[in-house]
Q: What sequence folds into this?
């Protein structure tokens, strides 16, 4: 009984100093466990945050690079335009408005901010914003590097604030050569294209990060946060500030320091930073930098450390909870041995939970990486698809010109049918008469009828030849063309409509033949389209009159087609050369004739314009380069 009584007795309580020591050890163990868990969670969260930041930074840099480089070709293409070179050759003797409007159309089509032309002295002589109060015309830009690079014969690039608009933009420039054959030839002007950067920054605002771009002087000129723009990443010395001001790149902006402070470096070029002032001074960030070699820029991304701090607290609390559970289990096991299995099972469940969470996190990271790779592949496929679409568009435009020509033939079919039916009826009558005369042995009469039949078949052959010539495809070969002969040919296609409509023709051109340089078939197509439109406009007009004229002016030949119809409404004058714009009744046309004609004139180095006559009616003018008369051209007949 005594032995049993001894075994049932509770163990003697520990001395007070031992209990205090155990309490101190348990407390220190809890703090160490929570600290260690927080450090591990911090490293894992920072690693994941850096992976996300690198992916976002790479995609954003590629987007910025692609957005700007798609405009790189534009100044070179515009610098070779004949209209630009012709105006630059003698700007004082020409009206700049056609070139201003041409540059404005290119600005609208390409989606850029401004397009302007500088002469050799750096003065702006034509610009797409000629009609705005802050127009570039008359401004001198010799201090800009895009001018000095281009006037030296290279391609220029520049970024900064506009002198007049104070808008941030990127500038592409290209030299304009009037004579590039001489070994010592120099550019005669510079064509500049300005691209705004606001659209790219708007896309950055949707990301859960701060993005900004710095130049070689560490000036922030692009940022997702507006208050960061035009700040210096680090404080500038007086010498640096004077050097930046000398370029006038950022006008008179104060370029105040951003207040960034590097708290600690991180692996693979990362940094943990904070801001002592400004809009981002309320948090800490992981900073990564990516070089954009095409432009000499640095792109930065700032990812808030809020997820890292949250992960630290969660891990510390979870570790503290686990430590408390283990400690509590140990204490209960010290008191009650029967609870040991439950404690081990609970610990195993916790380990399984942590393992499952870790596995899910790894799967999530792998899935996100796979999605990013798929997104990159889709982006590459879309770029290739767009290239193929552009090639198909060019082919479709060429086929559309031939289709429009065949559509005009369809409109002429009724008149041609009438032209052929009359000779056929006459041939039949002459043939029947010839048979009767031969039966009566009146051979002279029969021979006369057969002669009439021969003349009628020749007339039908001429009509057929005209149709074959008009329907043939263009060779796209530049050659000398007789303007008078080309107009006469176009008129022959409308002979029946001219006779039936009792339309009088007035021909106003000099006695000598006028020659132009161009594509014969395409010029015929434009003239047939303009004459057909004029005849349709004069339907129902008493005493219709079609006036066809041609004359030379400053090494150019101006061809005009004028009718005395109702004219073109003023609100339609600015739209008649747009594709699918038509005022005809449904089914009478697709609205492509004038659009295609205008495009043909641009390809031939000329232009097509429309105006209304003061006395009534519309007037269309074709302007083409004059081709000097040669002995070969004098002896060449129009086929």
A:
């Amino acid at each position: 009984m005594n032995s049993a009584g001894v075994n049932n007795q509770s163990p003697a309580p520990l001395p007070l100093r031992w209990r205090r020591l155990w309490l101190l050890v348990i407390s220190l163990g809890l703090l160490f466990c929570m600290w260690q868990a927080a450090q591990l969670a911090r490293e894992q969260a920072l690693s994941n945050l850096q992976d996300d930041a690198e992916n976002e930074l790479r995609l954003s840099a590629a987007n910025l690079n692609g957005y700007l480089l798609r405009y790189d070709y534009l100044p070179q293409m515009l610098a070779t335009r004949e209209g630009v070179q012709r105006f630059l050759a003698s700007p004082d003797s020409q009206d700049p408005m056609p070139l201003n409007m041409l540059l404005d159309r290119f600005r609208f089509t390409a989606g850029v901010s401004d397009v302007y032309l500088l002469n050799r002295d750096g003065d702006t002589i034509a610009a797409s914003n000629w009609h705005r109060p802050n127009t570039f015309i008359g401004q001198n830009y010799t201090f800009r590097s895009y001018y000095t690079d281009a006037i030296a014969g290279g391609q220029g690039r520049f970024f900064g604030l506009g002198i007049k608009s104070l808008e941030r933009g990127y500038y592409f420039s290209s030299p304009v050569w009037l004579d590039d054959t001489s070994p010592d030839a120099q550019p005669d002007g510079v064509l500049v294209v300005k691209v705004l950067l606001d659209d790219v920054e708007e896309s950055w605002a949707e990301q859960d990060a701060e993005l900004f771009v710095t130049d070689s002087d560490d000036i922030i000129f692009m940022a997702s946060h507006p208050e960061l723009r035009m700040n210096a990443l680090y404080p500038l010395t007086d010498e640096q500030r004077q050097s930046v001001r000398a370029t006038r790149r950022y006008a008179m902006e104060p370029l105040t320091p951003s207040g960034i402070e590097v708290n600690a470096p991180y692996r693979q070029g990362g940094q943990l930073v904070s801001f002592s002032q400004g809009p981002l001074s309320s948090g800490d960030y992981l900073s990564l930098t990516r070089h954009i070699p095409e432009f000499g820029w640095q792109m930065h991304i700032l990812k808030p450390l809020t997820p890292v701090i949250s992960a630290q607290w969660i891990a510390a609390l979870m570790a503290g909870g686990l430590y408390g559970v283990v400690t509590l289990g140990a204490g209960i096991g010290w008191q009650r041995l029967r609870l040991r299995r439950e404690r081990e099972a609970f610990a195993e469940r916790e380990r399984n939970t942590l393992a499952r969470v870790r596995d899910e996190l790894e799967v999530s990271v792998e899935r996100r990486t796979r999605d990013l790779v798929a997104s990159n592949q889709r982006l590459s496929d879309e770029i290739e698809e767009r290239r193929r679409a552009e090639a198909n568009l060019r082919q479709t435009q060429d086929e559309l010109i031939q289709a429009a020509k065949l559509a005009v033939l369809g409109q002429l079919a009724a008149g041609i049918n009438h032209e052929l039916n009359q000779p056929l009826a006459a041939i039949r009558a002459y043939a029947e008469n010839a048979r009767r005369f031969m039966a009566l042995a009146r051979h002279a009469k029969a021979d006369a009828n057969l002669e009439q039949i021969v003349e009628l078949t020749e007339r039908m052959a001429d009509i057929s030849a005209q149709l074959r010539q008009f329907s043939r495809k263009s060779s796209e070969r530049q050659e000398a063309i007789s303007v008078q002969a080309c107009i006469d040919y176009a008129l022959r296609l409308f002979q029946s409509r001219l006779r039936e409509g009792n339309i009088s023709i007035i021909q106003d051109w000099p006695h000598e033949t006028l020659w132009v340089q161009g594509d014969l078939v395409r010029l015929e197509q434009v003239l047939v389209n303009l004459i057909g439109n004029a005849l349709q406009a004069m339907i129902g007009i008493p005493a219709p009159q079609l006036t066809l004229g041609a004359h030379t002016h400053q090494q150019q030949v101006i061809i005009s087609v004028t009718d005395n119809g109702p004219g073109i409404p003023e609100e339609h004058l600015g739209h008649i050369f747009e594709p699918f714009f038509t005022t005809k009744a449904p089914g009478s046309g697709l609205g492509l004739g004038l659009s295609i004609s205008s495009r043909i004139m641009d390809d031939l180095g000329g232009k097509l314009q429309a105006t209304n006559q003061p006395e009534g009616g519309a007037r269309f003018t074709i302007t083409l380069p004059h081709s000097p008369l040669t002995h070969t051209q004098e002896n060449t007949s129009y086929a």
In short: The longest strand covers residues 168-176. The mean pLDDT is 82. Residues 479-625 form a domain with the Heat Shock Protein 90 fold (CATH 3.30.565.10).
